[in-house]
Amino acid sequence: MNNTVVELRDVSKSYTLGDARVDALKSVTLAVARGEMVAIQGPSGSGKSTLLNICGLIDTPDAGTFLLHDEVTNTLTPRQRAIYRRRTIGFIFQSFNLVPVMTVYENVEYPLILGGVDDALRTTRVTEILARVGLAKHAHHLPDQLSGGQRQRVAIARALVKKPLLVIADEPTANLDSTTASTMIEMMKSMTDVENVTFLVATHDERMARHCHRELRIIDGGLV
Amino acid sequence: MKIYLKRIKFAWKNIWRNRRRSGATMGVTAMGVTGLLFFGGFALYTYESLEEFSARQQGHVVLSHANFYAQNEEKPMQHGVEDWEKIRADLKSNTDVRQVLPRIEFTGLISNGDKSSIFVGSGVDACYEFTVTGPFLEVTQGEVLNPDSDMPTIMLGKGLAQQFGTHIGDSLTLLTTTVDGTLNGVDAKVVGIFGTGVPEMDQRKLYVSLNVAQNLIATRRVSTLSVYLKNTALTMAYVDKLKQRYPQLATRSWDELATFYHGVRNLYDRIFAVMGFVIVIVVLLSIINTIGMTVVERTREIGTLAALGALPGELLFNFVIEAAMIGVIGSAIGMLVAGGITLSLFYGNVMMPPPPGMTQGYPLRIAFSSALYAKTALAMLAITIVGAYFAARKGVRKPIVEALAHV
Predict the structure, then answer these.
(1) d(CA A78, CA B351)
(2) What percentage of chain B exceeds 90 in pLDDT?
(3) How confident is residue B197, by pLDDT bands cut at 50, 70 and 90?
(4) Looking at the complex, does the CB of residue A139 fall below 8 Å from at least one CB of chain B?
(5) B3 pLDDT band (50/70/90 cuts)?
(6) Is residue A214 within a helix (H) or strand (E), and if so which, with residue range?
(7) A111 vs B308: CB contact, 8 Å cut-off?
C-alpha cells in the first residue's frame, strides 16, 4: 500500500440539463497523498464540486477509475459507499449543514453513532475535539445560538471526530468574515499536520488556497 | 446515553420542529381513536346487554326434547321433556349451575266473559323465574306470581291487560287444548301487569305458575329446562358436557337461540368496520401528509446525514420513530378523551330514544374494554408506521448530491 489516499484516473462526469449535456469533469487524473491539503480552485460551474462529490463517494464517475486508499470504488454498492463514508470521510459544507435540533455535542457525536462507537469512547472523542476547536463551553448550545464561525468549527469538529482519512471541504470559508475565515484556515491546517488527515478543499478564497500544500485549478471540467 | 435512546431523543425533538403540523396530526389521530373507542365501546355495551338479555330470557343452556326445534307438535306438549324433575336435580348438583328453570310454552284464548283474545303463555317456576329474569321484565302494576298462592294466578302483558281493561285482582279465564286434544279452562286472578319493552309481546304475553299450566294442558312434562350458569364464559364447555350426558335431548346454548343478538351484532360489526376503515384512511392520509412535508423540508438535512454515512434504512427509521411518536401521543390523548366520555356517560345517565319496535329507551353507555383500547392503539401505531414508511421511503433515497442542493 502506498501513501496515496485519493487517486483519479481519467475520470469523467457529465450531466443533462434540459436538452443540454454538460461535461462537468473531463478525463481528470489526480493523486493526493496522505496528510496533504489540496486546494481546488476555479470559477463557478468549473467542476470543483463534482470533483469533490466523486472523491467524497457521494457521486460516481461516468468513466475512469477512482481509487480511495488504493481501493477501486467504482464497483462499490450504495451501501458499501455509505459504510466507507461513515468510517473514512469527513465533510465540511459551505452552509455548515448542522442539524438544527441537535446540540453542538450531538452534532459532533452523530458520525460516531453511525460508526457504532461505544458510549465511553464517544464521550472522550467528542469532548476532546470540542476542546480543540474551542467549543467545550458551547457543547449544549443549539446551532442557531452560535455565530457563523462557531458553527463552522462545529462542522470541522464533526468532520474530524471520527479521525477520517479524508476530509472534503466545499467552500468552508465562503460564509465567514475574514478574521473568522483565517482562524478556520489555521485550524484545518493544524488538524492536517497533527492528525495527518488529507484535505480536499474547493475554494475561491486565495488565503485558504495559499495555506494548502498544493493548489489545483480546474476550468471547464479539466485540471490545468 | 445508549444509541437507541439518542435516536428516540432525536425523533422527539424533530416532531416539535413544526408544532402546528405535528399537533394537527396528533389531533386527527386522537379524534380517530376517540371515535373508534366511542363506537366500539357502545357496540360492546350493546353486545353485553343483549348477551345478558338473551341469557336471562332463555338461560345459558336450554334442554329440550330432541324434536322440539326440528318438528312442529301435532298435539300440545308432544315434544315435552319427561322426568324433568330428575334431570333438574341432577343439573343443580353441578357447582357451576346457579339455577335450572322448567318452562312450558303454550297458547290459547283468554277471556273476561265479554271478550276473548289469543295469548302466548309461559308456565314458570314462580319461586325462581322472576329473580333470574331480573331487570328485563318490568312489573308496572301488582307483583310477580306467588308460589304459595292457593288459587291460580296470572301476570299479564300490559297490552293484553289494556285490551280487557283489567286491573289487579280481576279474574280472567284461560282456555287451551290438553294433550288429548280436549278443551280445558281455568279461572285465574290477575296479580301483576308487566312490560317487556316490545309492544307486540305485551299484547299477547302472560305468565302462570308451572303447575297451573300443567293442569291446564293435563301433562307432567315441560317444554324446556333452562340452565343458568354462574359464569357465561362456561357456556360452551357446559353445552358439550350436557350433550354427552343427555344425548337423547336437544342441547342449545343461548348463543344459538339469540337471533336478535346476532342480527344486531352483524349490523354493528359492519357499521364499525366501515367507520374504522374511514378513520384509518383519514389518519393514514394525515400522517402521510405530515411526514411527506417533513421529508421535503428536511431534504438538505437528509443529504447531509447520508453524506456522513447514514443508510437510507436508518434515515427511514428516524421518520418512522417520529410518526410512531405522533401516533402514540395522539392515541394516548384519544384514549383519555374516550375514557372521560365513558365516565361522564356512566354518571350522567344520558338516555337513548327507544329503538324501532320498542317502547323503552335505554341508557347510553360505553363499555370500557382494555382489549379494545390496546387493539385501537396498536392499530394506530401500525397505521402511522405504514404511513411514515410510504411517505419517507422515496425522500431518503434521493441522490445525495441532489438532496444537498435542495433549497
Answers:
(1) 64
(2) 70
(3) confident
(4) no
(5) confident
(6) strand A214-219
(7) yes
> Across the interface, which of B13, B17, B401 has its CB nearest the CB of A58?
B401
Above 60 in pLDDT, residue B249? yes
**Could you tell me if the ipTM is greater than 0.85?**
yes
Q: Do B311 and A82 touch (CB under 8 A)?
A: yes
Q: How distant, in Å, are the alpha carbons of A149, B157, B198, B358 from that of B202?
A: 89, 4, 6, 11
Write the secondary structure of chain B as one string of H (helix), E (strand) and C (coil).
Answer: CCHHHHHHHHHHHHHCCCHHHHHHHHHHHHHHHHHHHHHHHHHHHHHHHHHHHHHHHHCCEEEEECCCCCCCCCCCCCCCECCHHHHHHHHHCCCCEEEEEEEEEEEEEEECCCCEEEEEEEEECCCCHHHHHHHHCEEEEECCCCCCCCCCEEEEEHHHHHHHCCCCCCEEEEEEECCCCCEEEEEEEEEEEEECCCHHHHHHEEEEEHHHHHHHHCCCCECEEEEEECCHHHHHHHHHHHHHHCCCEEEEEHHHHCHHHHHHHHHHHHHHHHHHHHHHHHHHHHHHHHHHHHHHHCHHHHHHHHHCCCCHHHHHHHHHHHHHHHHHHHHHHHHHHHHHHHHHHHHHCCEECCCCCCCCCEECCCCCCHHHHHHHHHHHHHHHHHHHHHHHCCHHHCCHHHHHCCC
In this predicted structure, what is the pLDDT of residue B138? 84
Beta-carbon separation of B404 and A58 below 8 A: yes
Give this prediction's pTM.
0.79
Q: Which amino acid is at B156?
A: L
Domain boundaries defined on chain B: 2-53+261-404, 67-247
| The length of chain A, given as a count of residues | 224
Share of chain B above pLDDT 70, in %: 99
